[in-house]
Structure formats: structure tokens, C-alpha cells
Amino acid sequence: VTAERLAITPPWADGTQLFPLDHGENRFRREIGIPGDHLVVMYSGNMGLGHRFETILAAARSLAPNDKIHFVFIGDGARKPQIEAYRRVHHLSNIILLPYQPRARLRETLSAGDVHLISLDAKVQGLIVPSKLAGILAVGRPVIFLGDEQNSIATAILHGHCGHVIPEGAVSRVEAVIEGLLQNPGERRRLGAAARDLFDREYDRAVVVPQIIAQIESSVHKNRI
């Protein structure tokens, strides 16, 4: 497809519905029983065949002795049994598995995380774009992306200075980043503010949808000429 016929816009979220929520006001965080000064490492969404969990699970096992770090998985998919089995085999009480939650509670559930995980299998690079980034940015949370730097998710995180891009298999790096975020709440706040700033500029419905409409109208106008 020639460049002049191609327009790319990112998946968006509604910034009037999704925005940061402090732990003290978050009912969902209280329901899952995690104190405000603990660190929740969250994976929220599809646990499908296009995602990898080996590095995430290895990091969870290594960090298990630290009772202030919790890995919370919300969602479902073909890879969920892998996570369940790993938790069971290694007796990991720091892994919490929850089903999809009501959409009306999305602000609460996403804000319950202190840092969010996104993963992408190299085999599907260029075929899949995880859409969960927009919601994470909207609630102002840092992101750890596990995968290749040469894709739109990694580019956005690095461009927005709102998280970390780590190659699959680099377990020690994942551990170091998570431990650093636990020990440095100020860094979490800084990365979270950068995430929301990036959202406001590039991922909000109020920004993206008018771009899509403008592209359609421009195309229609050109075809009429």
C-alpha cells in the first residue's frame, strides 16, 4: 500500500471514563486484600497464544520471598492454564488469578496495579498489536513490555518515557525493575504521570477519533474530485 493511501491510528480509550485512581479510594484494591504500600504487578486482558509468560512467571517465582510484591492476572485465554499450572507446581502465593471483571469497574481494576505488564511473542510480531496499552496509560501507570523493541508498543513506551522495554528471557532485568519500583514510589509516580501525559496527547478517544473521521472525510473528498 502506498504511503499516501495509508493512515495509522492507535487503539484508544476514553479518558473521561479511565483516569488515575488512588489506592486509598480504590474499592477493588481493598477487595483483593493488598495493602496500599505493597506493589501490584498486573497483567490485565487476553492471555492468548500471541503472548509469552515464561519470563513473567520466572520473575514471580524468584520474587516470591518478598511478601510486598504481588502478581495479579485478570482475564482469560489459551495461556491461562499455563499460569495456573506454574502457580500450583511452584506453590506461589504471590500470584493471584482473577476472571475478567465487569467493564464498569475497569478504572478500579487497572488502577489497582502499580505497574502493568504487556508481552508479545516474536512469532506474531507484525500480526498482533496489544490494545491494552491505551487503558494502562489512561490510568497513569508505568508499563513493562516484554518483547522486541521494533514494534509500536515498545516505541510508544520509549518515546513517552513511561516504562521499560525488556527482551523476552531477561528475567533478572524484570526482577530488578520491579524491585526498583517497589523501593522508589517517586519513580512510579513520575513514570505514571508520563504515561497519562502520553495518553492525553496520543491515545485519548478525544484525540484519536477526530483523526479517524478526518481521514475518512479526506478520502471521501478526494474520491469525489
Structure description:
- This protein has 225 residues and is α/β, with parallel strands linked by helices.
- It has 9 helices and 6 strands.
- Strands 3-2-1-4-5-6 form a 6-stranded parallel beta sheet, sandwiched between helices.
- The protein is globular, with a radius of gyration of 18 Å.
- The mean pLDDT is 95.
Question: Briefly, what is this?
Answer:
With 225 residues, this protein is of the alpha/beta class.
Secondary structure topology:
Blueprint: H1 27-31, E1 39-46, H2 54-62, E2 69-76, H3 80-89, E3 95-98, H4 106-111, E4 115-119, H5 133-138, E5 143-146, H6 152-160, E6 163-166, H7 171-183, H8 185-203, H9 205-224
Parallel strand pairs: 1-2, 1-4, 2-3, 4-5, 5-6
Helix pairs in contact: 2-7, 8-9
Q: How would you describe this structure in keywords?
A:
six-stranded parallel sheet; globular
The share of residues in extended strands comes to 5-15%
What would the average pLDDT be, to the nearest integer?
Answer: 95
Indicate the low-confidence ranges by residue numbers.
none
Q: Helical residue percent?
A: 40-55%
Order of helices and strands: HEHEHEHEHEHEHHH
Strand order of the largest sheet: 3-2-1-4-5-6
Coarse structural class: alpha/beta
Radius of gyration: 18 Å
How far apart, in Å, are the first and last alpha carbons? Answer: 21 Å
Q: How many E strands?
A: 6
Can you summarize the main beta sheet?
6 strands, parallel
Overall shape:
globular
- Total helices: the number is 9
